[in-house]
Amino acid sequence: MDTLLEQIELGTLWQFPGGIHPPQQKTLSNDKPIARLALPSKLVLPLKQHIGANGQLIVNKGQHVLKGQALTQPSGNWSLPIHAPTSGEITDIAPMPSAHPSALPELSIILTPDGKDTWTELTPVTSIEQLSHQALIDLIHNAGIAGMGGAGFPTYIKADSQRPVEFLIVNGVECEPYITADDMLMREHAEQIVQGIEIMQHLLTPTITLIGIEDNKPEAVDALQNASKHNPNIIVRAIPTIYPSGGEKQLIKVLTSQEVPSGGIPADIGVLVQNVGTLFAVSEAVFKGKPLIERVVTVTGSTITDARNVWALIGTEIKHLLDSQGFEPVEAQRVVMGGPMMGFTLPTVRIPVVKTTNCILAPDNSELAHAGEEKACIRCSACADVCPQTLLPQQLQWFAKGKEYDKLESYNLFDCIECGACSYVCPSEIPLVQYYRVAKAEIREQKIEQINAERAKVRFEARKARLEQEQEERKNRHSRTSSRPAKPAAEKAKVADALSRVTQKQGEKSAVQAAIERAKAKKMADGSVQPDNSEMMQEREKRKEQARQYKAQKQHDDTPNDSKSAVAAAIARAKAKKAAKLSDDQAIADLDTTKPCASETPSPDETKADPRKAAVAAAIARAKAKKAAKPSDGNVPEEVSETAKTHSDTDPRKAAVAAAIERAKAKKAAKLAQEQGSDEAPHVNNPESGSKPELDTADPVNTEADADPRKAAVAAAIARAKAKKAAKLAQEQGSDEAPIANNAESGSKPELDTADSVNTEADADPRKAAVAAAIARAKAKKAAKLAQEQGSDEAPIANNAESGSKPELDTADPVTTEADADPRKAAVAAAIARAKAKKAAKLAQEQGHDEAPLANNAESGSKPELDTGDPVSTEADVDPRKAAVAAAIARAKAKKAAKLAQEQGSDEAPLANNAESVSKPELDTGDPVSTEANVDPRKAAVAAAIARAKAKKKRKEQEGNDPS
Amino acid sequence: MKLTMASSPHNHSQKSVSTLMITVMCACIPGILTQAYFFGFGVLIQLIIALVTATLVEAVILKLRNKPILSTLNDGSAWLTAVLLAISIPPLAPWWITVIGIVFAIGMVKQLYGGLGFNIFNPAMGAYVLLLISFPVQMTSWIPVEQLLGAPIALTDQFSLIFTHTNSAGLTLDNVRTSIDGTTMATPLDAVKTAVSQSFTVSEAMKGAQFSDYAGIGWQWVNVAYLLGGIYLIKTKVINWHIPVSLIATLAICSAIGYIVSPGTQAGSMFHLFSGATMLGAFFIATDPVSACTTNKGRLIFGAAIGLLIYLIRHFGGYPDAVAFAVLLMNMAVPLIEHYTQPRTYGHGAKK
After folding, report:
1. Residue A708 and residue A765 share a domain
2. How far apart are alpha carbons A871 and A823 in whole angstroms?
3. Where in the sequence is the domain holding A831, given as residue range(s)?
4. How many whole angstroms separate alpha carbon A522 and alpha carbon A131?
5. N or C: which end of chain B has fewer CB within 10 A?
6. One domain for residues A771 and A716
7. Where is the domain boundary, A456, A483, A510?
């Protein structure tokens, strides 16, 4: 028995089972030499035209490139560059329909030729001996050569095979009907192909090189035989014409009798197969320095008047090819990229020629009839008889239809080469290959899912462990907190007592209940719009970032100093606010929005404002300031609450004002959402729906208040103030905060003046206005300070804040003495302060280790207020509901804070932000309002409701986005 | 421009189920003509009854199953079943035999299992066995070849025999079948079987009037005609050679061995091959794609097993012929055979 090599040398050929003889149709296009197409007006170059990763873009839109210039550079595994097929300008880089059955858009470079066709500098090699192995591989790699037979496997990888290659097989079979591209290339460029073979021989040193050509191409066989005469290691073999003898596995079987193991590659059996087109490209790249920028494409089919082979630049649109060769489309025209057996139909002719495009087939309906209706399989097994892989297509089809994936795999579905022979012969016209493709895809997907499921399992377990650990840590933390001074606990008890007292006194729980109900209803309503608030996510991201900065700062100079931590909380708030504002350069637009909003209010023509509203606002602001100041001065709270006492009866109109504020806010939020990306709608809805209940609340108030027209004026004033502030904020935009501070100062000053003048005419206490102004000043200052440092040392800020808040307190003191002193307001203010303190505490809690002191501080901060609140309630005979409202506010805020605390440390910023924004409009209102008298306590209720609603909304948001 | 999308391959051999079925029916023509020549036109009458019934039954059931009627009828599978059953039953059997057979074949054996491609059993043979068991007298009343009849039966008499059970003279089929010498002429297979059971030798039995040199007069030519039709089918690649060749080879070998072992009680290979429905079974019945094996190895096993069963039943069983039983038995074994005869796929266990 001869050895295999001897048998091969003797000219023995083997047979693979099955195979078919479809009509050849090669004479349509193989009787004319390869033509060169006119330069197209546009080239579309997909970045990825092969198996593997695409290269990295190294050119830009608008850049002028020369012919042969690399447009991408290889990066990563199996990555190939692409080159400019002609000189011209890159007009765009965008996803374009790809040369793939799906035509899914693929990032492509669009090159508009300049018509000059100027080559870039080429570096041809005269002799491959002078190049190292690696240099040669790199040369092939950088020329962007991929297998041109169809699969597009990067050639440099094959050429760099580390395994011994016994047989180098050159595939010139071209078994698909119609296609003659390789045939014509072999006839016209046999020498270059042999050069390419010799380069491969040089790289791979095979024992023998076999060129396989179907015996229906005698000219090609002759040409290659002549060209390779000098090289005894090259054997040209004419093999029987039978489809699919050009399949890699089939050709190996025919030429060497060997079979590539299932799931393996030819290299496993010492075989390497290269297409003739690829070898031609290799020779061009090495000896002429030309990268792969053009290829031979057969343009054929009965609808093509001049069917022939053409040299087409990579990136040429199919339309150009068809038009150049004369295309007369028929009814239900198909345009196939590839041959009739394995090619795929194109959805559009605007698809570019890529490195693997060997044929464009535009058949009419008689030569390639449309597929008929699928009938029942009669198990004739004609498919199995023609299967070159000896599969049982008929059985596979049953399993594929039944989705029996295990069976499919045991029947070797994945050995199917999708040659289409089975579908070709099937008398029932069952699209067998299509079934297999789908089944393969499904099995692959299933496997990926399995892998993912396993990963998810691992992840889940890791998460569980992490959560357990966290819980453990939390437990430890709690125990630590409770082991801290027992005082806070006692104070808490006191707070609770006070609260219960207040509520009891009122005897009107219904109000509280109603508030809760309202809030709940709102929550429900909000729930529907929650799912998509990517918008808010973005914002929250921003805030998170700030929170992180803040945290970092905190960690940096964190001391047991209670006051500092409280101040820090305030700073965080201020910062968050500022950042939000800053990032939002549309802030000015808010002006526009808020103005019309203001005009919506009942009577914008009214000029007189209600000063009492200002009082409420001031109280809130004061409470805040107090909170900040508290740590630094233990006595302050009492003073503040006393200030609160000074407030005269509030007016229902305040409610309307608050409603207006809310409306304005909603508008602003909507604006904000609009400018941002795509899904603003849900966001817009959200704030709107959030503000509605408040409006509803305001309505009854309006009716009973007989619609004080001044509210409109107030609202307008608010809008103005806001716009001013926003504008200011926008102005700074970055480095110089100092001016802002100044602005803020100057902004608040006039208010003060106004307040002063108000004093004289108002029957209520005008000083409240002054206080409010002072607060505003302080805040502005603080914010400015904060902005100034932007870094490590909060201490000065704290100082500043303290000093800022003190004057207010001082102001408040005298106020108490002479004011008509509605004590109930104090209760409200106290409640607000309490809630805020709690919130701050919560905030602090989430922040790692230093939460305890802060919490303590906050608690202690709130206590005095409560204490103050208590006497207030006892001495007050009027409207106990306020207390209830206050309690509700406190509750809502506490809830909010709790929620916030729940979600991962970083989300404090929004809280701070929110708190700030709540108080801000009130502050703003304070000034103009102070000219008016007759304030009603109901406003407080409204404000509370607003706060509640806001808290709920916020919470909802956070719930919706909760990462866990 | 709007382009039409299609999945590859975009070419087709233009072979279809109906052309396959029509080719098979065409291949039956020599056999049918031979049968008509030797046994009268009764076979043609039965053919017409069968074809009409099959069309109606198929249409009704397709209607009931909400399937497209015309396109399914066009595949020709029902007509092929009708043809195969019509040529299997005695030519002058009463019309209702054919009708019952077709209703059962199409309605039960084929459509009840899901229609073409889903039936486990060969419809024609299923119906044949049902008829043979239910109406043994009618199903074994083969008339002798015309040459042996006292007087050839006129076409009108054949009609009335089939439709009214009596001819114009009021004679029943049994009367007609009686030959000149007053004995009922059995089929060659039946005659041999009866003779052997009555302790005659095969050679003695084959001295009967209905025998020629190798097998029964007429029967051997019918078989030759079907053999020719079968060769045509193999030539046109409608059927694979595996089943007929292994079937015939097995039957020949078994009967040869039997003949060598016991020449007195066993007929030779030639007798077996050219008697009864051997060739019809080998080329037209056993090769029914739906109910036969689809792997090449499986086909060889399938054919061989049928050949063996035919021999065993003919020699040891209670029925003179055994093609239908053998085919049905092996139909049941198809899934098993296919499971164990999966071919080696390229690249699997290949020599390195």
Report:
1. yes
2. 9
3. 523-961
4. 77
5. C
6. yes
7. A483
Q: Name the CA radius of gyration of chain B, rounded.
A: 21
Tokens of A799: 């100082």
Predicted model pTM: 0.62
Q: Which two tokens stand for residue B2?
A: 């709007």
Residue contact B289–A379, C-beta within 8 A: yes
- Residue A128: count of CB within 10 angstroms of its CB: 18
A631 and A689 part of one domain: yes
What does the pLDDT look like over A267-299, one tens digit per residue?
999 999 999 999 999 999 999 999 999 999 999
- Over the Cα atoms of chain A, what is R_g? 41
| C-alpha span between A233 and A194 (Å, rounded) | 11
Chain A closest CA to B351's CA: distance in Å?
7
- pLDDT computed for residue A810 by the predictor: 38
B294 vs B303: CA distance, rounded Å: 12
> Does residue A154 surpass a pLDDT of 80?
yes
pLDDT recorded at residue A462: 94
- Name the stretches of chain B with pLDDT < 70: 1, 147-152, 174-186, 209-210, 213, 350-352
Query: Of A786, A852, A790, A907, nearest to A562 (Cα)?
Result: A852
Residue A469's contacts (CB-CB under 8 Å, 6 or more residues apart) are: none
Considering only the beta carbons, identify the residue of A22, A329, A376 that sits closest to B1. Answer: A329
Whether B338 has its CB under 8 Å from any CB of chain A: the answer is yes
Do the Cβ atoms of A262 and B348 come within 8 Å?
yes
Distances (CA, A) of B107 to A669, B47, B123, B128: 73, 18, 9, 14
Residues in A touching B351 (Cβ below 8 Å)? 258-259
> B253: burial class by Cβ within 10 Å (0-12, 13-18, 19+)?
middle
Looking at the domain assignment, is residue A622 inside a domain? yes
Note whether B7 contacts A: Cβ–Cβ < 8 A. Answer: yes
User: d(Cα B84, Cα B25) in Å, to the nearest integer?
Assistant: 9
Whole-angstrom Cα distance, residue B138 to residue A43?
Answer: 81
Closest residue by Cα to residue A120 from A234, A4, A290, A280? A290
- Give A696's pLDDT tier (boundaries 50, 70, 90): very low
Question: Scanning every residue of chain A, which has its alpha carbon at the shortest distance from the alpha carbon of B287?
Answer: A380
- Using a CB-CB distance cutoff of 8 angstroms, which residues of chain B are in contact with residue A434? 7
Q: Taking the C-alpha atoms of B143, B147, B148 and B153 in order, what is their torsion angle to the nearest 10 degrees? A: 50
Side-by-side strand order, sheet with A271-275: A234-239, A208-214, A167-171, A271-275
- Report helix angle A218-227 to A190-204, nearest 10: 60
Name the nearest CA neighbour of A376 among B182, B135, B77, B161: B77
Angle (CA) B225-B231-B233 rounded to 5° is 105
Place of tokens 């962007």: A144
| Count: domains in chain A | 3
Q: Do A531 and A420 share a structural domain?
A: no
Q: Could you tell me if B5 lies within 8 Å of chain A, comparing CB atoms?
A: yes
Residue from the list A348, A368, A428 with its beta carbon closest to the beta carbon of B17:
A428
Task: For A327-337, write each residue's pLDDT tens digit.
Answer: 999 888 999 99
Q: Which residues pair with B55 in a beta bridge?
A: none
The answer on A229 and A299 residing in a single domain is: yes
Q: B295 at the A interface (CB within 8 A)?
A: yes
User: Which residues of chain A lie closer than 8 angstroms to B242, CB-CB?
Assistant: none
Residues A434 and A476 in one domain: yes
Check if the beta carbon of residue A244 is closer than 8 Å to that of residue A419. yes
Q: How far is CA B16 from the centre of its chain?
A: 23
What whole-number distance in Å separates Cα of residue B44 and Cα of residue B257?
Answer: 38
Nearest CA in chain A to B77: A378
Burial class (CB in 10 A: 0-12, 13-18, 19+), B136: exposed
State whether residue A109 is helix, strand or coil: strand
- Asked if residue A909 has pLDDT above 50, the reply is no
Which pLDDT value is given to residue A19? Answer: 92
